[in-house]
Design brief:
Layout lengths: L8 E4 L6 E3 H16 L5 H10 L7 H6 L10 H9 L3 H8 L20 H4 L21 H4 L4 H28 L11 H17 L5 H19 L4 E5 L6 H16 L3 E6 L5 H12 L4 E4 L15 H12 L4 E5 H8 L4 H4 L8 E6 L9 H14 L3 E6 L6 H7 L5 E3 L4 H7 L4 E8 L1 H9 L3 E5 L3 H9 L6 E4 L5 H16 L4 E5 L14 E4 L3 H8 L14 E7 L9 H13 L6 H11 L11 H7 L9 H7 L7 E5 L5 H11 L3 H7 L3 E5 H9 L3 E3 L5 E3 L5 E2 L3 E2 L9 E2 L1
Parallel strand pairs: 3-8, 3-9, 4-6, 4-7, 5-6, 7-8, 10-15, 11-13, 11-14, 12-13, 14-15, 16-19, 18-22
Antiparallel strand pairs: 1-2, 16-17, 18-19, 20-21
């Protein structure tokens, strides 16, 4: 570089009074990325990608961009430099650190293609004003020697995460003038002390019942194995009501302290119970130590200027999971593992050296089971992770884990699952066979307090309409979240006070919702669903099992939905071969039958696409896989409701347009509609479509705080602004 040449810059502050040199940014990013990647023995590779990632900013075009010029591609130059040193992992990470990891593509791809093969053919000017590029470091042996594309691809995602987070943090620190208040929270040993106070209160107190004694045995086993057990894969098989939530957290904190792990991540299947679990952990461990990462968390629905210091720290921590205890959803967790966008992948490196607890592990979706298990196996084998599969109905995943992690045995934490199922058996299962709507309604009316779980929202509304309205409830996703929360609070109060309480619900009530009915009914489904419904009956063991019936039934002219027919068939198989369904042996047979078709466990062929390159993206199809991996596949659109506090929020949306915070606040007052329902509402003129595409319910008569949004509406016209 000539003496007179200006020093290349990476950033200029918003007030244009300060600048950051490119070399300072590269070195700062490299130091952070190296620190993050050292968690999985790849510190030198992390530094390498950090030093190369913004080489393209050393160009006249980008320097002009800093002063208002047009956008330029500043990622490709670093990717080309990485490939020149035969480092495709670094090349993918660098190429995607703004726009997302691209597909590898084909060697024949033209320079204008977004694939990596296309981009390496582009002509990207670099002024040469930086020190020479350091030599490529040696990759960790388990990457360099691996012949498995899944291992290499997963390593690439983790390296990408290190780079993206480091780039964000170094830039954020410069733009703010000082580091943001990140990394709050107490250490794992300090959290362990808090947990032990609670655990000791259970263990030293006299067990008031055989159920309490068994819960204590499970807790004691989890504490002991947490202290002494090696890192790896564990199962915790405890019937509903056996205290597995606290016992699994106790194991996780003991284990993390014993092995020097950084955090505990609790993965929950549904948003309907995440705030319940997060609040339980917060009450125990303290608000500053627990991050609940879901769309309607309080720190996400408050305008940035109105955030409290605690909420602001939570908002920052949600970007990269920089907190000691994380509570999140299965959709957020697994879709992030197969995502390619920087915002979704930024947190992945913080999974390393963690304890992962998968609550209700039986809900891992069959269509994506192999990719999910493959990802867990990668984390356990190469990233210092311990995984716990926690459920009352343990899925048969041993064969899949042996395939993806052959040297990792599954260790059961529960001291005696068979005995637990005997002692904690609090209901009696029965089969009504096929019944009519009228006969079912007649049976439900005979109970003062009863739960009936059905497969379809329409069925729930129909049954509810036939019940006495006093003390009856209809829980479905046609209700907005605010009304679901209100109804659940009323239901718990009526159950506790012995008042009439008849609830018809879809499966949303099955995943850990803490209610206790004296009897229950479950429409035909899988054995896991039947037993989850049973977990809402006599949950606290106040009655004899013989006095707490749970009935399986089939409705006349109402076949099972396509998406659960395999589950229904697997249950029918188990019913033919087992006298009792609520035993570990019957549950194991059910899942073996359900998982018998191996091809159905990766319906989109995501793993073969990486292993064999047989996908539209060919070589390492990161972008293609991100599009394919959608745990919630059914396309829906959100309809916002002008009800309660949502009325003022909808008016704000009309006046000011959408912001991320406003839409998240409106999430409590919204319903997601499938295509047929949406068409019906549009045809009836019941929706108002705003210029940005947001949909507001304009006919408030179509929403009831008891049953939610109407499924059937009459024709009309639509208002489009």
């Amino acid at each position: 570089m000539k003496a007179a040449d200006p020093i290349p810059l990476a950033h200029i502050s918003e007030d244009e009074t300060r600048s950051q040199t490119l070399i300072d940014h590269l070195r700062g990013t490299a130091a952070l990325a190296g620190q993050f990647a050292s968690a999985f023995s790849a510190g030198a590779e992390g530094e390498f990608v950090g030093l190369l990632h913004d080489l393209g900013k050393d160009s006249p075009g980008f320097q002009h961009r800093l002063h208002g010029g047009p956008p330029v591609d500043h990622s490709t130059a670093g990717a080309q430099a990485a490939l020149q040193q035969n480092d495709p992992c670094a090349a993918f990470a660098i190429a995607g650190h703004h726009s997302g990891i691209p597909d590898g593509g084909h060697r024949q791809d033209a320079p204008d293609e977004p694939t990596l093969f296309g981009r390496i053919k582009r002509q990207v000017p670099v002024a040469g004003g930086l020190p020479p590029i350091t030599a490529r470091p040696a990759l960790p042996a388990w990457v360099a020697e691996s012949k498995d594309n899944l291992t290499t691809a997963f390593f690439t995602r983790m390296l990408f995460s290190c780079l993206v987070d480091a780039d964000f943090l170094d830039t954020e620190t410069f733009m703010n003038g000082s580091p943001a208040p990140r990394g709050a929270g107490q250490s794992i040993p300090e959290l362990l002390k808090k947990m032990k106070v609670k655990a000791d209160s259970y263990l030293t107190g006299a067990a008031s019942s055989p159920v309490g004694a068994q819960r204590n045995q499970v807790l004691q086993a989890c504490l002991e194995q947490g202290r002494t057990g090696p890192r790896g894969i564990y199962t915790l098989t405890v019937p509903t009501g056996g205290g597995k939530t606290f016992a699994s957290l106790a194991f996780a904190l003991e284990h993390a302290a014993a092995h020097g792990l950084n955090r505990v991540i609790y993965v929950i299947p549904y948003t309907s119970i995440i705030d319940q679990t997060a609040q339980t952990f917060t009450d125990l461990l303290g608000e500053e130590n627990v991050l609940a990462h879901f769309s309607t968390a309080d720190y996400k629905i408050v305008e940035k200027d109105d955030l409290t210091p605690s909420q602001y720290r939570s908002l920052l921590a949600s970007e990269n999971w920089d907190a000691p205890v994380i509570v999140t959803t299965a959709v957020q967790f697994f879709e992030s593992l197969y995502a390619n966008r920087s915002s979704r992948c930024r947190k992945l490196h913080n999974l390393a050296n963690s304890v992962l607890i998968f609550d209700e592990a039986q809900t891992l979706p069959c269509d994506y089971l192999r990719p999910c298990v493959s990802a867990i196996a990668q984390l356990v084998q190469h990233y210092g992770v311990t995984a716990v599969l926690c459920t009352a109905t343990q899925p048969d995943l041993g064969g899949l884990f042996r395939e993806f992690a052959p040297e990792q045995p599954l260790r059961e934490l529960s001291p005696d699952p068979d005995l637990l199922y005997q002692v904690l058996r609090r209901v009696t299962l029965g089969d009504l066979g096929t019944v009519s709507y009228e006969a079912l309604v007649g049976q439900l009316k005979e109970h003062e307090q009863v739960l009936c779980v059905v497969n379809r929202r329409k069925t729930a509304q129909t049954l509810f309409a036939a019940l006495p309205q006093d003390g009856s409830y209809c829980l479905t996703t046609l209700l907005c979240a605010a009304d679901r929360r209100r109804q659940l609070a009323e239901i718990r109060a009526r159950l506790e006070n012995g008042l009439p309480c008849r609830v018809v619900s879809t499966s949303l009530i099955e995943a850990g919702v803490d209610v206790d009915f004296p009897s229950a009914y479950r429409e035909q489904a899988g054995l896991d669903s039947l037993l989850q419904t049973a977990g809402r009956c006599n949950r606290n063991g106040k009655r004899l099992a013989a006095e707490s019936p749970v009935w399986l039934f089939r409705l006349e002219d109402c076949p099972a939905p396509r998406m659960i027919r395999a589950n229904v068939d697997a249950l029918a198989y188990v019913q033919q071969h087992f006298a009792r369904l609520d035993t570990p042996e019957a549950i194991l047979a059910y899942f073996r039958q359900l998982y018998a078709n191996k091809a159905s466990l990766d319906r989109h062929g995501i793993l073969p696409a990486f292993q064999k390159g047989d996908s539209p993206g060919r070589f390492f199809p990161f972008a293609w896989a991100a599009e394919q991996f959608r745990l919630i596949e059914s396309p829906t659109r959100t309809v916002y409701l002008p009800i309660g506090k949502g009325n003022a929020l909808c008016e704000q949306l009309r006046r000011q347009g959408p912001t991320r915070t406003l839409l998240r606040r409106l999430g409590l007052y919204s319903v997601n509609c499938y295509e047929a329902q949406l068409k019906s509402l549009l045809a009836a003129g019941a929706l108002e479509e705003l210029p940005g595409g947001e949909l507001l319910l304009s006919d408030e008569a179509l929403y009831s705080d008891k049953t939610g949004l109407a499924l059937a509406v009459e024709g009309g016209s639509c208002i489009i602004l």
